[in-house]
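Table S2 (continued). Query chain:
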Amino acid sequence: MKVMFISSMGGHLTELMCMKELFSEVDYRIVTEKTKTTEYLSEEYPGKVDYLVYGTKHHLFSYLFIFAFNILKSFVLFLKFRPKCVITTGTHTAVPMCYIAKLFGRKVVYIETFANAESKTVAGKLVYPIADLFIVQWESMLELYPKAVYGGWIF
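Corresponding output:
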């Protein structure tokens, strides 16, 4: 089974990499943003990593162009790998890939970040309606996402 694991860098990627024991069970790809802190992935998982352009909403003007580019690149990466399932811990980097996967009838698994115990993330709000499985790490989040599944902490 082909599975694409995607997240932005930082804590979201740390959470995503907590699932690395699944890599041996599937044909996988890892997609994240390219920064100095993520370059090690290409060495650790040769031929299994693709990068999107890093962008931050704090620089809104340039971010709009980066986000548009990343949507196109996500489409290309999806067509190149053709995953049966997309698993993500968020955030903005992953949302377009989730919608692309859904457009092609693939499964989408979204894991809401551990960092949010009392409020929805923007990415969570966007992916919740299309996710085949939406997992929260705090029981309190079930009130905000009633169709979610409580999975406990990923760490």
